[in-house]
Design goal:
The protein is α/β, with parallel strands linked by helices and 253 residues long. It has a single domain (2-193, 220-248), classed as 3-Layer(aba) Sandwich (Rossmann fold), CATH 3.40.50. The chain is 43% helix and 15% strand. The protein is built from 8 helices and 7 strands. A 7-stranded parallel beta sheet has the order 3-2-1-4-5-6-7, with helices on both faces. Helix 2 links the parallel strand 2 (36-41) and strand 3. Helix 1 crosses helix 8 (222-232) and helix 4 runs parallel beside helix 5 (156-176). The protein is globular and about 50 Å long.
């Protein structure tokens, strides 16, 4: 049956930024589809852990600061020690810094670029090496943004990093498809998460955003659950190097 292709039974997924928001939602969705989850964040993840274990799946929480690439090998090793394999990597962890471009600091540039694109590439590289070693293929899904397609305002490093995510998604897909590795991305639209709290608090800016979204609402973590399970499953085996917009129609307007 076609629905069997969406099942993730006994798969092992690593999800970065798994404590709240989109990362938590994606972790729960993957577990609901059958996967065991390795959650990575700089804080504890008790809510994510309790929800996934309440579903009868296993959860390994790893505290790590992904502002540098130093923790990556240790995370892979811990996942292998616990589960013996990895099958799915979700590169979700990221930050945003808001400052006028004419005043934008080097630190705000480097911090965002480091976690949003450098860590994404090297975590993907580490996962791909393990997939090749296992001989099983695997899935890599990174979180891009509407600002992978647009310029934005007062977020130059975020725009650069998310444009970079879309670019390296294509580049990695080109090289790793021969190993049965699918590399794709999702581009959430305006989601009700920690990153957009300042926008939602600004009544004028929030109204302008909502006016442009055909769906007429901010997105939620529930809205990314289906697409991420699809891209993590065998149902998407012939999709590679693509960035899927989950935006309520924002880009169509």
């Amino acid at each position: 049956m076609i629905l069997d292709n969406f099942k993730l039974d006994n798969k092992v997924a690593i999800v970065t930024g798994a404590s709240t928001g989109l990362g938590q939602g994606m972790s729960i969705a993957l577990a609901d589809a059958g996967a065991n989850v390795v959650g990575v964040d700089y804080v504890d993840m008790p809510e994510t852990k309790a929800t996934i274990e309440g579903m009868g799946k296993r959860f390994l929480g790893i505290k790590a600061n992904l502002m540098t690439i130093e923790p990556i090998d240790g995370i892979i090793e811990a996942a292998l020690k616990e589960f013996g394999r990895i099958d799915i990597l979700i590169n979700n962890a990221g930050i945003i810094r808001r400052e006028d471009a004419v005043e934008f600091s080097e630190k705000n540039w480097d911090d965002v670029m480091n976690i949003n694109v450098k860590t994404v590439f090297f975590f993907s590289q580490a996962a791909a090496r393990q997939y090749i070693k296992q001989g099983t293929g695997g899935k890599i899904i990174s979180v891009a943004s509407m600002l992978s397609f647009q310029g934005g305002i007062r977020v130059p490093s975020y725009t650069a990093s998310k444009s970079g995510v879309m670019g390296i998604t294509r580049a990695m897909a080109n090289e790793w498809a021969k190993h049965n590795i699918n590399v794709n991305a999702i581009a959430p639209g305006y989601m009700a998460t920690n990153n957009t709290a300042p926008l939602r608090a600004d009544e004028e800016r929030s109204a302008a955003i909502l006016e442009r979204i055909p769906a007429g609402r901010w997105g939620t973590p529930d809205d990314v659950m289906g697409p991420v399970v699809f891209l993590a499953s065998n149902a998407s085996n012939y999709i590679n190097g693509y960035t899927v917009a989950i935006d309520g129609g924002w880009l169509a307007r």
